[in-house]
Write a structure and sequence with these properties.
This protein is of the alpha+beta class and 322 residues long. The protein has ten helices and twelve strands. It is globular.
């Protein structure tokens, strides 16, 4: 059995102030590629992971999810997991959640147990801050989640360090098919994870309430109407404004100057909206114009020291093939 899912863009966290009684809240969208293809076959020896040369963290994510699912399902069956296609971890594209949910979904299906992605995320401990990865896995499209009650989550923490349930999905929209998304991952070691990510949340939160109000206003009155009306110009402006306020502005400031160089270059060359996904270093541009020249020019700008991909939004979740 094989499951196929894909990357996501995380545009912003909404409320890292919490004075209204909720925290977190997220905006993101699902990408058609890059993709993750994970295969699972029952064996009679011991559970193993074939990573095809990827580093140990891929294996650790899979085995962690496997063990939690075995406890939940009360099984001791052994499997061979094989990564047939993947993309970089800790690059702002949400691979950790997709790996974990893919493993959990395969095991549930192979044991004829019907569990939603929300339930799977609860079992394996994902979605404790942002729900974008969970709902990209199940629904696809542009996603907005409603964060957590402060009575459930008492401090500002990244998903990797938070054990609360995933937040509720409060809005989901189809991404127009003619919108193109260009992804640029510069060849720099600038990903943020683990204790470093926890320290950043603790140091820079709570953010100003005025920033939360601004993000909420832009989201409700510009970004959401724009995608309903397929207005890429207004959508891009909303993305650009959100990128420069609240916790997202902190994420951007913690990156090397090349990130702003890439984003500003795209905006100066006709891209409607551009920014950095999660903690980066992957940057993105949203456009409905020809991307071939832009891709070539960006590679020239970065002396070919980057991975540049042209993709689009995906309006469905993960798919399993038997």
């Amino acid at each position: 059995m094989q499951i196929e899912t894909s990357a996501r863009l995380h545009l912003s966290l909404i409320d890292l102030n919490g004075s209204i009684g909720r925290v977190d809240g997220s905006i993101g969208l699902t990408l058609e590629k890059p993709s993750l293809k994970l295969e699972c076959i029952e064996n009679n020896t011991q559970t193993q992971v074939i990573t095809n040369g990827l580093d140990d963290e891929y294996e650790k994510k899979i085995l962690s999810s496997y063990m939690k699912m075995c406890d939940y399902l009360d099984i001791n069956t052994t499997y061979t997991f094989k990564i047939n296609e993947s993309y970089p971890i800790h690059h702002g594209l949400g691979l950790g959640t997709q790996l974990s949910l893919s493993t959990a979904s395969l095991l549930a299906n192979m044991n004829d147990v019907n569990l939603t992605s929300y339930e799977l995320a609860n079992i394996i401990g994902r979605g404790g801050t942002s729900g974008i990865g969970v709902y990209s896995f199940s629904e696809g499209g542009l996603i907005i989640d409603g964060g957590h009650k402060k009575t459930d989550k008492h401090s500002f923490l990244p998903s990797s360090a938070s054990n609360v349930s995933p937040p509720p999905l409060i809005a989901r929209y189809e991404i127009p098919d003619d919108w193109k998304i260009i992804l640029i991952t510069p060849d720099i070691n600038a990903g943020v994870s683990g204790s470093n990510e926890v320290n950043i949340f603790q140091k820079y939160t709570p953010i100003k309430l005025d920033d939360v109000k601004t993000i909420s206003y832009i989201t409700l009155m510009k970004l959401m109407p724009a995608i309903v009306e397929s207005d890429i110009t207004s959508f891009g402006k909303a993305v650009n404004e959100i990128q420069n306020v609240g916790f997202k502005s902190i994420e951007r400031k913690l990156q090397p100057p090349i990130i702003d160089t890439i984003i500003n270059y795209m905006l100066d060359n006709g891209v409607a909206g551009a920014g950095m996904s999660s903690f980066g270093p992957t940057c993105f541009g949203i456009t409905d114009t020809n991307t071939k020249i832009l891709k070539h020019d960006i590679l020239d700008l970065l002396d070919n020291n980057a991975n540049v991909t042209v993709t689009k939004g995906k309006n469905h979740g993960a798919k399993i093939k038997i």
